[in-house]
Amino acid sequence: GQQLNQSPQSMFIQEGEDVSMNCTSSSIFNTWLWYKQDPGEGPVLLIALYKAGELTSNGRLTAQFGITRKDSFLNISASIPSDVGIYFCAGQRGNEKLTFGTGTRLTIIP
Amino acid sequence: NAGVTQTPKFRVLKTGQSMTLLCAQDMNHEYMYWYRQDPGMGLRLIHYSVGEGTTAKGEVPDGYNVSRLKKQNFLLGLESAAPSQTSVYFCASANTGEETQYFGPGTRLLVL
Fold it and tell me: CB of A76 within 8 A of CB of A59?
């Protein structure tokens, strides 16, 4: 089955640094979603994007729906320890099932 | 509201044993999903349901069966567990197929 290419696979940053990650696909999606998974928990929705070019913020998080509808980006500004976890992108066309990326594992170095 | 709950949280099985994973949601959602999560693979859809009494295959359905006898519950069964089914299993629910999916905390399954 199709999977989304998510990069980087992992990131090691210092507290206070900004973070950028992206997700690309060979197919067009109508919806892009970004989830965060804390250790031992299920994914939790962070941001949903519904229009090409859309830029949406949720606190220190900002996500963009790429113009080509084949990619999306997530930025985290001024990272804090609780940002640690795995970030997943997911794409959806209409009411088709979600297609998930492989995840970006974020680690914050003290 | 408890949201989406999963039972059990962790289980160890021997090859060939059977078990059932239970997912329950109290949000009156129509859609329910079972995913498995493996390292480097993201989440892959096993089976899903668009309403009480309905089920459909996802991306990786082989070796699993599901039932949705009640709207709030979605059961995932393994008839004869195999080591390849060692994984973390997540259940999710949504109001419609186009709306946000809410995930449970996961069930960690180890098949020896």
Answer: no
B40 reaches A (C-beta below 8 A): yes
* Least trusted range by pLDDT, from A54-58, A88-92, A94-98, B102-106: A94-98
Provide the Cα torsion B63, B87, B90, A80; round to 10°. Answer: -160
Q: What is the pLDDT of residue B1?
A: 66
Give Cα separations from B96 to A96, A110, B12, B92 (angstroms). Answer: 11, 42, 34, 12
Residue A98 contacts residue A1 (beta carbons within 8 Å): no
B32-58 tens-digit pLDDT: 999 999 987 789 999 999 999 999 999
Query: Could you tell me which residues come within 8 angstroms of residue A31 by beta carbon, excluding any fewer than 6 positions away?
Result: A48, A49, A50, A91, A92, A93, B98
Quote the minimal CA–CA distance from A17 to chain B in Å.
25
Chain B residues touching residue A97 (CB < 8 angstroms): 33, 45, 48, 58-59, 97
Cβ atoms within 10 Å of A105's Cβ, excluding its own: 14
| Separation in Å, CA B108 to CA A42, B53, B55 | 11, 26, 23
Q: What letter would DSSP give residue A101?
A: B
